[in-house]
Amino acid sequence: MVRIAGETLHLHFLGTAGALPSPQRNPSCILIRRGSDTLLFDCGEGTQQQMMRARTGFTVNAVFITHWHADHFLGVFGLVETLAFMGRTDPLPIYGPPWVGEFVDLVQKISRHTRGFSVTAHPLEHGSVVPFNGYTVRAFSTHHGIPGLGYVMEEDERPGRFNREQAIALGVPPGPLFGRLQRGEAVCIVRDGVETEIRPADVLGEPRPGRKVVYTGDTRPLQHHPGITAMLRDADILIHDATFDDQESDRAREVLHSTAGEAGEAAVALNARMLALMHISSRYTSTVNHIRDAKRQYEGDVILPADLAVLEIPYRSD
User: Fold this and answer.
1) What is the reported pTM?
2) Alpha-carbon torsion 70, 72, 75, 79, what sign?
């Protein structure tokens, strides 16, 4: 487990392979767990077994598919069957680009036994926003030859840093009222015999950004598209297509994927704090060149996760 000290936002790299799986790598799937919420981004073949190996449990709030190539969605069929056998009753929303409705219809038709829950289709387009409690998932267009989307998971702003000295100076006694102010609630105190309201703005600094994860799915580099760039900037981690090393740059252009060096260039242009290389072609028995190519372009942290690797994302230091 790769661990960075911080709060509870975990990325489970359940599948990191390119179009063809290998003995070491499953097809694409990233599980993001924030608090008690669990989201799947892509759901390649064998995802349910990877979830078992990773011991993530099967409480899935939503599935987001990037595009309709089989290595990114075949695992949905088995996952739905497993959830049915486990007695799920809550609807399972599946988000994705056009044709998600047809895909969900197919899932429903293939299954011949009664399920205790519905699978619902939610088509997205560039700029679509899916709200959750405390964060959103925003879709952006990718460049892979068919309609495709990447996703930005971004937390809401956090309250500013609490000024304990200022609170005491205003007459707030240390204790539970401090916590209420830090949660953004106004409190009332009695000061000099007069009831006085203390607002969070009186004792909190400027709001602080939440954490941000960008997952491109399969794509050519996107940093040259102004309508997309602003949405992707300043991520805590950029998970970018790096199907090929730089020696295969012509092939990457031909099949509309990216090289590791291009992923590094994207990380620089988008001001990412960390770069994770994803969707590694099965032709590579070593990924040393991928890391080297990315680091030639990008001086930040570069990782190339193995299947079942876990990364904890901290809040940014103030």
Assistant:
1) 0.91
2) negative
Tell me the domains of the chain and their CATH numbers.
9-158+210-312 (3.60.15.10), 164-203 (no CATH)
At 113-146, the pLDDT tens digits run 778 999 999 999 999 999 999 999 999 999 999 9
Please list the residues that pair with 139 across neighbouring strands. Answer: 151
Residues in the chain: 318
How far lies 180's CA from each of 164, 167, 170, 177, 241, in Å?
13, 12, 15, 5, 43
As given in the structure block, the two tokens for residue 128 are: 């679509």
Is 307 annotated as catalytic? no
Rounded distance between C-alpha atoms, residue 102 and residue 89, angstroms:
22
DSSP 163: -
The CA-CA-CA angle for residues 174, 175, 180, to 5°, reads 110
What would the pLDDT profile of 7-17 be if each residue is shown by its tens digit?
A: 699 999 999 99
Q: Which two tokens stand for residue 278?
A: 């994803």
Q: What burial letters (b/e) apply to 267-299, b meaning 16+ CB within 10 Å?
A: bebbebbbbbbbbbbeebeebebbbebbbebbe
Q: Any bridge partners for residue 31, and if so which?
A: 12, 40
For residues 242 and 305, what is the distance between their CA atoms, to the nearest angstrom?
Answer: 12
Amino acid at 170: L
Strand partners of residue 29: 15
Give the angle 164-166-170 at the CA atoms, nearest 5°.
Answer: 115
Beta strands in the chain (DSSP E): 9-15, 29-34, 37-41, 62-64, 92-96, 119-123, 129-132, 135-141, 149-155, 187-191, 194-198, 212-215, 237-241, 274-278, 301-303, 309-312
Which one is catalytic: 42, 71, 241, 245? 71
